[in-house]
Amino acid sequence: MRNTQWYEVLLASACWAVLLATPAPTEAASPQWQPLLEDHGASAWRGWTTPGLPAGWHVSGGMLSKDGPVEDLVTNQSFGDFELELEWKIGRGGNSGIFYRVTRDYDHVYWSGPEYQLLDDANAPDGRNRLTSAAAAYSLYGAPAGIVLPFDHWNRTRLVVKGAHVEHWLNGRKVVEYELQSADWRSKVAASKFAAYPNYGLARTGLIGLQGDHPGALAIRRLRIRELH
User: Fold this and answer.
1) CA distance 194 to 138
2) What is the pLDDT confidence band of residue 22, given thresholds at 50, 70 and 90?
3) What value does the mean pLDDT take over residues 33-56?
């Protein structure tokens, strides 16, 4: 083989070696998911007034649960723009919710943070009104009927909050979409009980909250969040 041919073979081999040694593209540039539950702990959470996990909340096998009214939970970390995913199962007649951008301006979680409703639509009183049914933006934007599963079945929730834009997803379907501080939003807030709290829904960053002080059993698993930029 002539020298030029040897050179071409060596050059091709070197190129392949470089390609094979170069790491494949990864999702490192994408926002990373952060678990909000451990197998046997919930270090990301605390009570609204109590440090650590309040009495009545339990964690086992990566599942957070309660059997009746207990203290509300909030994250230790604040979040602004984020995507939250979880699976939840509620008991018969159960009522709970996920709050976001919660601040400590007021005495209760729901006076500052908008709520994604968790509910047994068929048996809880709030299920009679689409504005307060499962996956609704509580009292402001209703979710369609027939998507939430019956009590004691696992539902999948996705909550996206980016700037003023909010999306509620339930069992793979987008069920609510709205813009915070839009004219429509302000008119709905003004016509609701939240009109009594001037800072309701105004924070650009805040805590994630889980409602515990309402009746019914609740279980949550596969709870994770990623910040959006």
Assistant:
1) 10
2) very low
3) 96
Terminal-to-terminal C-alpha distance of the chain: 57
| 147, 156 contact by CB (below 8 A) | no
Contact between 43 and 51 (Cβ < 8 Å):
no
d(CA 188, CA 137): 11
Closest CA to 72 of 35, 132, 115, 29: 115
Instruction: Enumerate residues 6+ apart whose C-beta is below 8 A from 197.
Output: 105, 106, 111, 112
3-state SS record for 64-109: EEECCCCCCEEEEEEECCEEEEEEEEECCCCEEEEEEEECCCCCCH
Q: Please give the pLDDT value at position 31.
A: 73
Q: What is the pLDDT of residue 24?
A: 40
* pTM for this entry: 0.86
Q: How far apart are CA 174 and CA 126, in angstroms?
A: 21
Q: Topology of 35-227 in CATH?
A: Jelly Rolls (2.60.120)
User: In the structure encoding, which two tokens stand for residue 165, read together?
Assistant: 């834009």
Specify the amino acid at residue 15. C
The 3-state DSSP class for residue 209 equals strand
Render pLDDT for 121-149 as a digit per residue (tens, 0 to 9): 999 999 999 999 999 999 999 999 999 99
Place of tokens 């501080």: 181
Number of neighbours of residue 18 by Cβ within 10 angstroms: 9
Phi, psi (rounded to 5 degrees) for 145: -80, 160
**Residue 58 β-bridge partners:** 65
3-state secondary structure of 31: coil
Ramachandran class of 64: left when φ > 0, alpha when ψ lies in -120 to 50, beta otherwise? beta
